[in-house]
Amino acid sequence: MAAENNFTIPIPESKTVEESIDYSQRGQWLRAAVLGANDGLVSVASLMMGVGAVKHDVKAMILTGFAGLVAGACSMAIGEFVSVSSQLDVEVSQMKRTGDSNKESEDEQLPNPLQAAAASAVAFIFGAMVPLLAASFIVNHKVRLGVVVAAVTIALVVFGWIGAYLGKTPMVKSCSRVLVGGWMAMAITFGLTKLIGSRGL
Which segments cross the bilayer (predicted)? Predict the structure, then answer.
């Protein structure tokens, strides 16, 4: 009786979609978008909390938040454009000095200033809209402040989760970092403004 032939030819395993994704290539736009959203959320919420510490008028809070949204979006876009343009200049100069022959591949990986600026500005506006919308329909001052804090807290956790998911980084660490940072910014702004306002300055 012939022995069974147990020899099998190994079949090369193809990479799954998950393994084939180069998450480092997401860094350029992901960094700008996450930074912009968090900055818009925290800075505008902190401005509104600061004004809310000394003024009970909802109109003052909304106008302050809107001004912060416009100024912050412009600042983020310009700052990101300048920063990424400088990075682009450095990388292009380095390519010229080394005489890299694989130019087409390198061009695809070069940073894009306009893309980074647009992503940063849009993300800032998106983040800033959270506290603005949260405060717009609340008449009672104390309830309004509480709703803003609650809405910002939820948004911080969501933004932290999105950043961790897209970048494949630790979920709890990412969410905790943005949450604690946002709380600190709002608390410090509220406390210092309240202190200065109580002294009649």
Answer: 29-48, 60-78, 116-138, 145-166, 178-197
Interhelix angle 58-98/113-136, rounded to 10 degrees, is: 170
Q: DSSP letter string over 89-133? A: HHHHHHHHHHT-S-HHHHHHHS--HHHHHHHHHHHHHHHHHHHHH
Inter-axis angle of helices 58-98 and 141-167, nearest 10: 20
Q: Give me the residue spans of the domains in the chain.
A: 26-98+106-198
d(CA 178, CA 73): 19
What is the token pair recorded at 31?
A: 């960094």
Q: Over the stretch 173-194, which tens digit does the pLDDT of each residue have?
A: 888 888 999 999 999 999 999 9
Contact status, residue 174 vs residue 164, Cβ threshold 8 Å: yes
Instruction: Identify whether the C-beta of residue 95 lies closer than 8 Å to the C-beta of residue 150.
Output: no
**Amino acid identity at 156:** L
